[in-house]
Design a protein that fits this description.
binds fe (iii) ion, 403 residues, globular, TIM Barrel, binds 3-[(4S)-2,5-dioxoimidazolidin-4-yl]propanoic acid, alpha/beta
């Protein structure tokens, strides 16, 4: 099918800039962008379908590159506790925190997990997300990590969204391995990763490098195992303390290092040299009322691409809107609206290794885009909440029924 989408303005986000084409047209062939440019340059042909976008502003579909969207239960009760003065670390030490979500996730069936995850992903989709990454990490044993990863694989069979699956078995220490964290890491490296990879359930491997999770040496073993399987790696690093996890990730040419509140200038340089994307998660920063800021200026100065993501998870970022995260990226981290939009499109694509096919509107890329009824692309980041009138086009098909 050859389709014409015209009478619009486009923020292509090529090279991480708005890269505006005013009075533009887009031709799609199958699910790919076949032509894009000023409408006056278009050589008219026969199209199977023509859509007048009524002067809308078109942006690439959003890419939410760091989520934990599959989990059992939720932690609103802990939220209440935290507001009575109990800290996240204290809650975790009392067997709450991640451990309580692990319990609920282990108890849930595949069907139950799928049902609750679809509800959350549908929220993100309605907000403009056309590609999402989802991590395991609440199963923490072979059967339950497998269950989570199978659910992640099923999401795109139920919703018009592209899904990347990341194994985060090294998220927390399961109770069965208390005081034996090295043995758990060994189990991940020699049993879980090889088997789960063989079943085709993993696109990348992540690990939580933190004093209340795993040490850099342990994370390095996970990275070596991933390397041996030919899987790319990512890291949760420098969220609560500086362990140089992001430098470690850079040594393994990680796709991304995420959180980064406690990142140092040396980490920034290592990431720049390795081409590792910095994923900033304002939802978690906000929800935990953090005060330590990532070195945004240094990241920019060293030209490390900065992506933004919801970190959707029940404990530290129950965030169902990537557009809200863009606003937080500007208000809290002082990124410009243009930088935040790049953070949810082209840089987020790179954080998933998808920069050749997604993240900007260019010939040859997948035709995922949003047509916004706005006057300028800065409005995408400017408005807080609400729905914003828009049309979502996924793989050159307009989504009509999002129920
Ligand atoms: N960092 C986070 O913010 C989440 N995981 C992680 O590694 C927290 C996940 C949770 O508390 O359930
Ligand atoms: Fe996370």
């Amino acid at each position: 099918m050859k389709k014409l989408w015209h009478n619009c303005h486009v923020a292509t986000m090529q090279n991480g800039k708005y890269s505006i084409i005013a009075n533009a047209a887009i031709v799609t062939l199958g699910n790919i962008i076949h032509w894009i440019g000023p409408e006056q340059d278009l050589v008219l042909e026969q199209y199977d379908e023509t859509t007048d976008l009524n002067q809308a502003w078109v942006s690439p579909g959003f890419i939410d590159c760091h989520t934990h969207s599959v989990f059992g239960g939720n932690r609103s009760i802990e939220f209440e506790k935290r507001l009575q003065g109990v800290s996240y670390a204290e809650i975790a030490a009392q067997g709450g925190g991640i451990a309580s979500t692990v319990k609920a996730t282990r108890e849930a069936s595949e069907e139950e997990l799928l049902k609750s995850a679809l509800k959350r992903v549908k929220n993100l989709l309605r907000d403009g997300v056309t590609t999402i990454e989802i991590k395991s990490g609440y199963g923490l044993d072979y059967e339950n990590e497998r269950k989570m990863l199978r659910v992640i694989r099923q999401i795109s069979q139920h919703l018009p969204i592209t899904v990347k699956s990341t194994c985060l078995a090294a998220h927390a220490l399961p109770a069965e391995y208390e005081e034996q964290s090295d043995a758990y890491i060994e189990h991940i490296c020699t049993e879980m990763l090889p088997k789960l990879h063989q079943e085709g359930l993993i696109d990348a491997v992540d690990a939580f490098c933190e004093y209340l999770a795993f040490s850099p040496a342990q994370v390095e073993r996970v990275f070596q195992a991933a390397n041996n399987l030919g899987l790319p790696v990512k890291i949760h690093a420098e969220q609560l303390s500086a362990l140089a996890g992001s430098s470690l990730a850079a040594r393994y040419h990680a796709l991304s290092a995420d959180h980064l509140e406690y990142i140092t200038e040396d980490d920034v340089k290592a990431m720049a040299a390795a081409g590792t994307v910095a994923v900033i998660l304002p939802g978690a920063f906000y929800f935990l009322r953090e005060t330590k800021f990532p070195l945004i200026e240094a990241l920019k100065q060293h030209q490390v691409p900065i992506a933004l993501s919801t970190d959707l998870n029940p404990g530290t970022s129950p965030c169902l809107s990537l557009r809200l995260v863009l606003n937080m990226g500007s208000t809290i981290f002082r990124l410009t609206p243009e930088e935040t939009l790049a953070g949810a499109t082209i840089h987020a694509a790179k954080a998933l290794g998808l920069q050749q096919s997604h993240g900007s509107l260019e010939v040859g890329k997948v035709a995922d885009f949003i047509a916004w009824e706005i006057e300028h692309p800065s409005e995408i980041t400017y408005w807080l909440g609400g729905d914003l009138s828009k049309r979502i086009i996924y793989q050159a098909q307009e989504l009509k029924f999002l129920g």
